[in-house]
Amino acid sequence: MATTKLKRRMELTAISPVRLVPLAFLAAILGGAGLLMLPLSRTPGSDEVFMPALFTAVSAVCVTGLINVDTSTFWTPFGQTVILALIQIGGFGIMTFATLLTLLVRKNLGLRSQLVAKSESRTLNLGDVKGVLIRVATIMLAFEAITAILLTARFWIAYEDDLPTAAWHGIFHSISAFNNAGFSLFSDNLIPFGTDPWIILPICVAVIFGGLGFPVLIELLRGNPTRKSWTVHVRLTVYGTLILLAVGTGLFAWFEWDRPETLGSLSTGGRILASIAGGVFPRTAGFNTINYGDAAPETLLITNILMFIGGGSAGTAGGIKITTFLILAFAIWNEIRGREQVTVGRRSVSSSVQRQALSVALLGIAAVLLGTVLLLAFTDYGLEAALFEAISAFATVGLSTGITYELSTGAELVLMALMFMGRIGTITVASALALTSRPILYRLPEERPIIG
């Protein structure tokens, strides 16, 4: 009897990998906020410190990009370096990063470390954790390095930056882009470079590939990949990304092409480039080449939809993820056609995957609605601005209509909670909050409520 009680007590006190991931992100946020509160992290004359440091740390670790102070003027180079490190760690994954460090130091991994890495990434094969971690790190550093070189060259040649400044701008924006963070060292984000393809296009490419997710990148970068050998996950992510990019770019151009507040004053080439950015950046990146406070209501609505869907799973992107959205779309389509089995291509999708997709989508909707209601209660802004801000925070995008600087402490706490939940995942947060998870060894009688 005593042995049984002791065993139960140990089970209750042990931290499972699912609970450890949110705790690790929380620890990284608090540590980053502590570093940002140091005097050498901020410029002289900065009065309020705690909320800017905490908000910025949450936004960086959750790779969101929402800011309540100007990154370029409020933080010193040391503070900006702290932000960059938090973005890199948050994009790679706190526990995945820690597991990789353990691998590099010890040359091997224990079962618990492998379980933690598998729990955070949700896609790693337990038998190949070490190999996957190394490939993920290599892919991330390679994309960031190439983007940094291109941006550094452009900043140095075209904008009269000295080489160290150009290199710092290039490195910062390349890491921010691949990790879909959206932080910028310029007060107007990328608006001053909106018509420069040598700046915008490399950042767009980094955002797209970073948003695909590491499992998809690993699959695509294997030797001579063929579409016939792609898994359902890869097909959904790649084709879904292409469709959403095309739709987002086309609708952005349609709604903003002749509006003088946004694209109307640009050349034809500048309008096309800005439209491409308008289709790419809402996919969880957070950079902007226009002021979204001046955008048309139709543009804001489409941007809300793109932000909420997000990018690929198990990567740096946010939102409910492309696969979640498309699985639900296929489920609806098959239900309309009277098919019991949900199929994608020549493969069927299990009912457990469908339930998980539905749970993620509904929990995401609930989080956004609750966040919007709280923002309306804590601020004097209207529904359109509050909803845009809530979706941007939950989807870890970082776009804003310009109200983030003026929010109250209560509203900032709401956004921080949404960013945290969006980065960790609604299912992970819900599972971490659950006290127990026990299998049910029996089935109850079934009934069929009337639906619709």
Keywords, please?
452 residues, mainly alpha, two-stranded antiparallel sheet, 2 strands, 63% helix
Please give the structural blueprint.
Elements: H1 2-13, H2 17-36, H3 50-61, H4 71-74, H5 77-92, H6 94-106, H7 111-121, H8 129-158, H9 163-178, H10 197-212, H11 214-220, H12 232-256, H13 268-280, H14 297-309, H15 322-336, E1 342-344, E2 347-349, H16 351-378, H17 383-394, H18 409-424, H19 426-433
Strand-pairing-aware structural class: mainly alpha
* Tally of discrete structural domains: 1
**Helical run tally:** 19
Question: Strands of the largest sheet, in order across it?
Answer: 1-2
* Number of beta-strand segments: 2
